[in-house]
From TrEMBL, chain A:
It comes from the Bacteria. Pfam families: CbtB. This is Putative cobalt transporter subunit (CbtB).
Automatic annotation (TrEMBL), chain B:
This is Putative cobalt transporter subunit (CbtA). Keywords: Membrane, Transmembrane, Transmembrane helix. NCBIfam families: CbtA. It holds the Pfam family CbtA. The lineage of its organism: Bacteria, Pseudomonadati, Pseudomonadota, Alphaproteobacteria, Rhodobacterales. The chain crosses the membrane at residues 70-91, 103-121, 141-157, 162-178, 198-221. Coiled coil: none annotated. It comes from Palleronia marisminoris. InterPro entries: CbtA_put (IPR012666). It comes from the Bacteria.
Amino acid sequence: MTTTTATRASTADVALPALFASILGLGLIVLAGHVQADALHDAAHDVRHATGFPCH
Amino acid sequence: MLGRILTSAVIAGFAAGLVAALLQLVFVQPVLLHAELYEGGELIHFGADSIVSAQQRTGGVDLLRDGLSVLFSALVYVGYGLILTAAMAMASARGLARVDPRAGIVWGIAGWVTVQFAPAIGLPPELPGVAAADLAARQAWWAGTVVSTGLACALLALGRSWMAWGAAIVLFLLPHLIGAPQPEIYTGPTPPELAGEFAARALGVGLAVWVCLGALAGALWSREMRDAGIAQPA
C-alpha cells in the first residue's frame, strides 16, 4: 500500500501559467484563423473555410 | 506548471490537427474544390447553358496547397488545445471538475459547440464565392458568439446554482437574438446544395476532431497531474 501525499494544485499555482497558455493559444488562432494579410489568408484559406472562420 | 500545460496542449492539439487535416482533405476539400469550379466560372449553375453534371470528380493531392492546410490545421488546433488545457487545469485546481479522458470528451464537445456550432447558427461555414456581409462585422460577431457561448458552457457545466444556469441560458441565446451580419442580397454562382453539404461536413468533421482533442487533452493532463503527484477532485 502506498501512502498518498498528493495535494491539489492551488489556484494561484495554475492561474498565471493557464493565462499564459490561453493567450498563446488565442494568438495562434487569431493568426491562423483571422488575420487578413494576403500571404496568411492564401495559405490558411482552405482550413479557414473548413473550420468555419469568417473568410474573405 | 507552465511546462506541463504546454506539453499536454501541444501534443493533443497537434494530433487533433493532423486528424482534422486528414478528415478535411477527404470529406470537406472535394466540396470546396467543386465550389471553386463555379466560383471560377468553369461550371455554371444558373442560366440557359447550365446543363453540366452536378457530379464532378474533384480531389487529388496538391502538395503545396494541402501541405499548407495540414500546417494551419495543426496551428489552429494547437491554439485550441492550449486554451482547452488551460481551462481544464483551472477547473481542476479550483476543485470544480475532475479531468480524465472521458470527461475530456465532454470538454471537447463543449469546445465544438463554442467555436463551431454556435457561430455556425448565424454564419454557417461558407464556401468560397457565396454572398456574405462585411468581413470585419462577421469576425466581430463570430468572436462575440464564441466568448458568450464559452462562458455559457462553463456556467452550465461548472455552476452550482440556478442563477449560474439561468445566466448560461441567456448567454447561449444572446448572440442569436442579436443576429449575425447577413449580406444585403443573396448572390453568387455556387449551388445552395453544395453550400449545405459543405456546412454539414465542416461541422461533422469539427465535432469528430474536437472529441479527439478533448479526449487527448484530458488523458495527457490527467497523466501530467498524476506524475506531479497532484490530487484531482473526486
